[in-house]
Amino acid sequence: MFTKAQDVIVALKLALEGSRRSYAELGRELGMSASEAHAAVRRLGEAHLLDPETREVRRELLRNFLIHGVPYAFPAHPKEVTRGMPTAWAAPVMSGKFTVAEQVPPVWPDPDGHVQGAAVRPLYSSAPGAARRDPELYALLALVDALRIGRARERALAEKEITQRLNAHASA
Asked: Domain span at residue 152?
């Protein structure tokens, strides 16, 4: 069984907040059904990214997958200009750390967004809503997008930030 893009969001949420929630709660927080959340956890276990018994995320393996796998398994390319929610280097977690001359910021297309930018398809359709409800998840998803679409500098900063954030939540 192959990992799906929504599995990345589930893994990040579990890495941030631990496994002490039902599939219904997890799905509700991420904007997916309980069965989708359960299937994602099952696939993550099969991929060895979490312990299937405890649902604890294997952080180092997840980190390696985010850095070395996600950009190739789930590539993204900025498209047409649209209104949306900033991601990658335009998101709060990375904004102000780079001087980006005349570059259109990457955004997740979102009718509630307030930024005009180049559309980047999120890992899962409910990512903008889940990110609005959870600022830490938003930061990690934006960093993952920097790995998916960024240049070397953005990717290097995203790697460093992802490592720090996953380690900071290791006791979750």
From this structure: 81-168
